[in-house]
Amino acid sequence: MTVKGTSENPQNSKQAVIVGSGPNGLTAGALLAQAGWQVDIYEASPHLGGAARSQALLGEGTISDLGAAAHPFGIASPVFSKLGLEEHGLKWAHSKYPMAHPFDDGTAAFLHHGLEETAAALGDDSRHWKRVHGSVTKNIDKHLENILGPVLRMPPHPMRMLQFGAAAMWPARTLANGAFETEAARALFNGSAVHAITPPDRPLTAAFGLLFNALGMSRGWPVAVGGTQSIANALAAVVEEHGGTIHLGEPIEDLGRFGKADAIILNLTPAQVLRLKGVDVSESMKHKMKKWRYGAASYKIDFLLDGPIPWKNPEVANATTVHVCGSADEIRLAEAEAAAGRIPERPFVLVCQQQAADPTRAREGKHVVWAYAHVPQGFVDKRAGVLIANQIERFAPGFQDRIIHAVTTDATQLEDWNPNLVGGDVAAGATDKLQAIVRMPSKLGPKTYMASGSNAPGGGVHGMPGAWAARAVLADHA
Question: Coil, strand or helix: which one is 134?
Fold first, then answer.
């Protein structure tokens, strides 16, 4: 199926071909179409959006996010703001708390919509929490301008970058143990940090804790009304508004057919790029792509329940995102096991309760719940599903009695659904060691560019790798 734009660009405009209609491919296409380029986006799937898709996975009247669910970086994305996605149908929805972290005794730590509120609820760690997060939260836009781009450049706000880097370089566990006195604050920080899909005792993981918490306390961790698909649909609307064309159900195996294009942007990871024919890149670049490492996988379950999750602490039901694992030590152990290639008996489970913010996700009193755990690369053992359910039951007795239907998606199934999720890696590449900060370059060859989570600033539904690829194209054709 081909979806053509409603306006026509001049016949003499430059032509860009984009392979892949994930948020980064669509973002690059939208920016180039706005700049007057002729844009054609090719998507192998009959549906656009890449991993930013939603459907009635659990039956009629339900909406499940097949990939990403909550979007702290999406609502804060500079390029999404520039493209005016909210003027093209996107609506964000917030719950009472951006995030919650329950404990065995029925208590819970909460990330609030504000630095002062979050700190006040942490008691003895109130001033410590503000000292660690204060500058990042209050200057979040400047920090995002620094961070949401290639590291090897002069940041637009150098002093802020130095300030951020002084704390960000530490392992999250080291920073939390040194800065906080309470288990609540330590677990809250470590839980946010392991969105890096890397054990929190590794360098640079503190950066993830700082950013995810600061975003939650300044912009929130919202969901998209009607599902994450709404983000992709809004981006597609911008592409089409400026005359771009989206070709669905058209897999591309050979770039040779696009010889007349002025630029080719690949919304793919290195493994997919290397499988294409006709890729015009140097041998050294191919060698670099072959060395690209993929990280731990995700094992995902979508649940349909006959009511909300019965958390021991009822307030947890008012949080969009819930980190389910227990203490900071348990988080470290779970992530270390997954990184070492073993399934943790008590995994770190990330739960998203979209209906706490968006009631459209189910009807007739039913509740859609999205959950995943970090597991070893390529993990397919269905025992992971039992461990995930048991971990939620631990903090919400009676949870499993409320399950009407569940759909599990293992690492192999994730990759079958979206080949960019190599081995079930949703970050498009390991985020440890040097890869944590140095991603693949936007430009691969004379007229070949790359825009995926493998590029700076990394994974997530924020469109910034697509924005940087589009900027590189426009700079080369200035």
Answer: helix
CA nearest to 233, candidates 465, 461, 474: 461
Residue 434, beta-bridge partner list: none
Q: DSSP alpha helices (H): ranges in 219-257?
A: 229-241
- Do residues 277 and 440 lie in contact, with contact meaning Cβ atoms separated by under 8 Å? no
Q: Any idea what DSSP says for residue 99?
A: E
- What's the rounded Cα separation, in Å, for the pair 322 and 280? 44
Supply the DSSP symbol for 441: -
Q: CB 232: neighbour CB atoms within 10 A?
A: 26
Residue 12 has what pLDDT?
47
Strands (E), 214-366: 223-224, 245-248, 263-266, 297-305, 319-324, 349-352
Neighbour count for residue 234 (Cβ, 10 Å): 22
Q: 188-202 pLDDT, tens per residue?
A: 999 999 999 999 999
Domains within the chain, CATH numbers bracketed: 2-52+226-293+431-476 (3.50.50.60), 92-224+295-416 (3.90.660.50)
User: Using CA atoms, how far apart are residues 451 and 463, in angstroms rounded to an integer?
Assistant: 9
pLDDT of residue 364: 87
pLDDT, average across residues 237-252: 96
Q: What are phi and psi of 417, to 5 degrees?
A: -70, -45
Contact present, 90 and 224 (Cβ < 8 Å): yes
Q: What is the DSSP string of 338-404?
A: HHTT---SS--EEEE-GGGT-GGG--TT-EEEEEEEEE-TT---THHHHHHHHHHHHHSTTTGGGEE
> Average pLDDT of 363-367?
92
What token pair was written down for 320?
């969009």
Q: Partners of 301 in the beta sheet?
A: 371, 408
Apex 96 CA angle, 95 and 102, nearest 5: 100
Q: Are 279 and 302 in contact (CB under 8 A)?
A: no
pLDDT tens column, 112-171: 999 999 999 999 999 999 999 999 999 999 999 988 888 777 888 888 888 888 898 999
Alpha-carbon distance 17 to 11, whole Å?
A: 16
Q: Which of 388, 457, 448 is nearest to 427 (CA)?
A: 457
Nearest to 189 by CA among 129, 147, 108, 114: 129
What is the distance between the alpha carbons of residues 208 and 189, in angstroms, rounded to a whole number?
Answer: 9
- Give the integer Cα–Cα distance in Å for 352 and 111: 14
Q: H-type helices in 84-157, by residue range?
A: 115-121, 126-138, 140-147
Say how many C-beta atoms besides its own lie within 10 A of residue 185's C-beta: 26
Contact by Cβ (8 Å): 328, 183? yes
